[in-house]
TrEMBL record, chains A, B:
Residue ranges occupied by any Non-reducing end beta-L-arabinofuranosidase-like GH127 C-terminal domain in the UniProt entry: 524-627
Alphabetical UniProt keywords: Hydrolase
Domain Non-reducing end beta-L-arabinofuranosidase-like GH127 middle, residue spans: 428-521
Record-given protein name: Glycoside hydrolase family 127 protein
GO molecular function: hydrolase activity
Short name of any one Pfam family annotated for the protein: Glyco_hydro127M
Keyword Hydrolase: yes
Hydrolase among keywords: yes
InterPro entries to which the protein is assigned, alphabetical: 6-hairpin_glycosidase_sf, Beta-AFase-like, Beta-AFase-like_GH127_C, Beta-AFase-like_GH127_cat, Beta-AFase-like_GH127_middle
Domain Non-reducing end beta-L-arabinofuranosidase-like GH127 catalytic: 25-417
Length: 629, 629
């Protein structure tokens, strides 16, 4: 077992403005996210593994060995990747806690997969055997390189939490196979689903071997020239319509678009390609300004699971796939490290609280694949024992025919300590607010910090310097963009008002000293850009990083009838309270008339709930955007 | 050649409140629809035939004979049906004008298809030969019964415009095959795409043979019990989720839903099944009140080409498939004849002017498959020489991989004289306003009427009685529901104000007398039900039966930036004029803010165009619903 460099870090750019701190540096100690990490460890990972055993996706590897795979194979063409994503989650989880059980789970799966790899490094349960489709016969839909990508990402996690074991060596052989097959002079092809790019780039960083980064760059450069077949949804579906460095905004399948952007960002950083980096950054900035939901969700169309046009953000048909949110966080983390600009950490926070936290049922046994902002009819309770065939299942289902999201949540929760803090510019930056113990080094000098907070229940974040060099430590704390005045930083008696962005502590802090960031955690009305026509003249309520929702359990009526009286204000309790009037329920005539109807009668004051909590009390209607009376 | 009964009538209920008048009774003489019928005769039918030759859908029949079909077959599994729909159009067109050319086209196609029918009556180019899938091996997607349905509908058209020729006999053999195969004791199956029901019911009426109506009833009753496989979109996609007589609103694939409703209405009428009829009527009434666009379009989702939930009517992603509009007209015509209620003729009118008229390019060489209410980015000109792979092609394409719509438009235009007038309750009813010569019989006495009008350019409709029995004729004219006061009926000096519904002429009219209906043809603001959240606080403009649209050619800017000043009024010219303010163009930041933005600067007065005219001046952005400043 080799020495572990960069312990517990999903990404380690060779050069960056900010240096990430990994699972060995940041320990999350309870709170909102600590609870979810615990649920992941106790429930989500086991739940996913049990389902993948039950539906036969893991057994595919066994059948590959006993020769019965052709008749017995189960799952879609990308099912191998979910096993790898689960293993990535196990690897981070073992890295996070040292859990022997997680390590054993990982190794047991390794033993089943390892013998399936072919001598030349190829590994896939769907292709290449007699009676199966040949290898690389379907770049549009085959997902072979996508599966390799997740295999390699799992291996990077394993290497950075355990070391180079047999699983890691297997992934390296697979990556070598990919380079041999698709390198310069090899097959001039790209996969329908990006993912290999981001994986190869990180493997290159892990091993310090440019070969893999060059291969990732090749895949990035090849895309956008029409190598993939035109389909009903157009080549934009797989971003093969416009070269990456010429595109101006994300489009097509949202997960594909974001995985590609993450990989392109890595390639740009590692090759010093400023033009490519600027293109990826500009695309992401435009996507955030024009194609992102107030929840941080991405993907406006069920058709093609895709981004819509600019400002096409319908609440009811919001796809906002959980995986797209996670993929967008991957892009944001890369841009944050490279630029130090706060909007990327802002979006990570928004996605964490409103997509990642929303996706999973509070008991850990159900998941949203799509995260709608408006459920018009009470969802149906999904069946308990069969995977849901519907991505837009109306309530959280225990498993899906396409079940990419649960394992994506698991790997994200297990590794999320890596998104809390960084070092750079001679300082420590705090990006996300969680109770945590943080170890860092600035100018080779060790620093330890304790962060305590009830965030997001309140906005008070206290950082205590446990140890620091004698000159003290310079701290910078993100003041989220949702702050609109009233945030302060206090060190002793010195209290300064701070604006959105990275607030500098008023002075260096020495061991034993502490600093308090106070963010105004109050409910607020949020108005959409008027070009987002499908929520025109409607408002949402946010409180800190969280978006709130009106659920029919609280309203006592179908939320589709609700109109909100903004002038009546927002109640002050733990949960915002609003004044709602109901429009008439009936309506059997032609619905286009000479005058618009308004809500009737006395307004009822109704509590909103955090969006991430909706759908946990049984079938309900729910909406985030409320028409203004 | 047998005697032709009920000349030129698509449907002839054995019992009904109103009796339709067919192509032999009503001659459309120019005007808005006469021009379109002429374009159909001169261009659309030939265009469709040329494309179907070019893409090989007609040649499939030839290849079936020369044994090369397996390798040479072109088109989707339902391509035979488009050939039959084209032949239906030719049959009506021959019936309408007596065109020898149309007759020859029809007969030439008959000669190519006839020999392909198998001895037991089966006929399909996609299934059943060595090397093809077996017959009836894929009820969900195979479309065999759908193709038979269109074959039979074409045969009904032929029989009612020409007589029982070889084509008609072929269709009867096919229908007999269907009854033998799927009758009581036969295969207990239903097709994924309804259409056979409405076709068999009409064949039963044509031949006076209950067998076909019983078979149609069987298909109707079998549906809704989960005989078809569950799919990602659910069994509602093909209406196999709820029995027809228990459903309360249309759902799933819009064309499927409407073809089924038309067939179920026919079955209910012919079998005297009042419960079934009431169910279909209630479904249609609910669909009109909660799931229909202001254009009369149906289908809110590209995914599954489907109805959305109640009040889910997004303008930009409006699917509003042309075929769904036509199918809804088929339902309306049946409900109108059965009940005499005006809302069905109102919806037929709305669909005619805003879906059927919109679908086809003004030069007759392009078609919209989907009819969006908001085009956000300038559409791309489709390629001229290849079928479009995209149903939501951004501008009218000459042909589609799935090209059901052009031939549906053709058969509708050629037969639309049958929707103009009826007899019943001792009167003649005028439902649609076109320049026309009308022959009818009331109580076995002949009546001739001349209708002259510039409708919808103005609202003046003059009916002159050319001949009538001595006691005169009782006339009833539809006053559309869009009339909101100000409509009058005048006979000589007697002028009475009339309200929406069927206005009775103030007295019987004798030969030589005339009557004038004056409808206030003025531009009006229309407000949506507030539950249609995606157009909340937005208005549309209508003028008579036509919906108007803002196109960027007239605005001189992207319509996405438009906000309308309703208080500034509607200009009075031929085309309505509105006052538009533009919201800021830029926007690179987070689009959810503490306050909403409003349009800036002096409003510009801008002309609207009839929605059906949009997209004829090259790439443009366009919207029907305008946010209120």
């Amino acid at each position: 077992m080799s020495r572990i460099v960069d312990f517990g870090l999903p990404i380690v750019p060779s050069t960056s403005r900010l240096r990430p701190l990994g699972l060995g540096d940041v320990e999350i100690l309870g709170g909102f996210w600590g609870e979810r990490q615990a649920l992941n460890a106790s429930t989500l990972i086991a739940h996913a593994q049990e389902w993948m055993e039950k539906v036969g996706w893991i057994a595919n590897f066994d059948h590959a060995l006993d020769g019965t795979l052709v008749e017995k194979r189960r799952g879609r063409e990308f099912s191998d990747s979910d096993v790898y994503k689960l293993m990535e989650a196990m690897a981070w989880e073992h890295g996070r806690t040292g859990s022997a059980e997680m390590n054993e789970r990982f190794e047991a799966l390794t033993r089943r997969i390892l013998p399936v790899q072919e001598p030349d490094g190829y590994l896939n349960t769907k292709f290449g055997r007699p009676g199966q489709q040949p290898r690389y016969s379907d770049f549009e839909w085959g997902h072979e390189l996508y599966c390799f990508g997740h295999l390699i990402q799992a291996a990077v996690a394993r290497a950075r939490t355990f070391g180079r074991d047999a699983f890691v060596e297997m992934a390296i052989r697979a990556a070598d196979h990919v380079c041999a097959e698709f390198g310069e002079g090899g097959r001039d092809s790209i996969p329908g689903h990006p993912e290999i790019e981001v994986a190869l780039a990180e493997l290159g960083r892990l091993l310090g071997d440019d070969k893999y980064i060059r291969q990732a760059a090749l895949f990035v450069e090849r895309r956008g020239h029409g190598r993939l077949r035109d389909i009903e949804w157009g080549r934009s579906y797989y971003q093969d319509d416009i070269p990456v460095r010429e595109a101006t905004v994300a489009r097509g399948h949202a997960v594909r678009a974001m995985y590609l952007a993450a990989g392109a960002a890595d390639v740009a950083v590692e090759t010093g390609d400023e033009e490519l980096f600027a293109a990826v950054k500009a695309q992401m900035d435009a996507t955030m300004a024009r194609r992102t939901y107030v929840t941080g969700g991405m993907g406006s169309r069920h058709t093609g699971e895709a981004f819509g046009e600019d400002f096409e953000l319908p609440p009811d048909r919001s796809y906002s796939e959980t995986c797209a949110g996670i993929a967008a966080m991957m892009v944001c983390q890369r841009l944050l490290l490279a630029t130090g600009e706060p909007q990327y950490a802002d979006l990570i926070e928004r996605i964490l609280y409103n997509i990642v936290a929303t996706s999973t049922a509070e008991d850990g046994h159900g998941f949203f694949y799509a995260n709608t902002l408006y459920r018009r009819t009470p969802g149906e309770l999904p069946e308990k024992d069969v995977p849901s065939p519907r991505a837009d299942s109306s309530l959280r289902a225990p498993w899906y025919d396409v079940s990419c999201c649960p394992t994506n949540v698991s790997r994200t929760l297990a590794s999320m300590a890596s998104m809390i803090a960084t070092t750079g510019d001679g300082a420590v930056q705090i990006h996300q607010f969680v109770p945590a113990h943080i170890r860092a080094a600035v100018a080779d000098e060790s620093i330890e910090l304790d962060m305590t907070t009830n965030y997001p229940d309140d906005g008070i974040v206290r950082i205590t310097v446990v140890s620091a060099p004698t000159q003290g430590v310079e701290l910078r704390l993100r003041v989220p963009a949702w702050v609109d005045g009233g945030a302060t930083l206090a060190v002793g008696d010195t209290v300064v008002e701070v604006a959105a962005g990275y607030a500098h502590a008023p002075r260096r802090l020495r061991a034993g000293e502490s600093l308090t960031l106070t963010l105004p955690m109050e409910a607020k009305w949020v108005h959409p850009d008027p070009r987002i026509d499908t929520v025109f003249h409607q408002v949402a309520v946010t409180k800190g990083p969280r978006v709130f929702a009106l659920e029919s359990h609280d309203l006592g009526a179908d939320v589709g009838r609700a109109q909100v009286d903004v002038a009546a204000g927002l109640g002050d309790g733990v949960q915002p309270e609003v004044a709602i009037r109901l429009v008439a329920e009936g309506g059997s005539g032609w619905p286009y008339r000479a005058a618009g109807d308004a809500g009737q009668g006395e307004p009822r004051r109704t509590t909103l709930i955090p969006y991430h909590r909706w759908g946990n009390r049984g079938p309900a209607t729910m909406r985030v955007w409320l028409p203004m009376a």
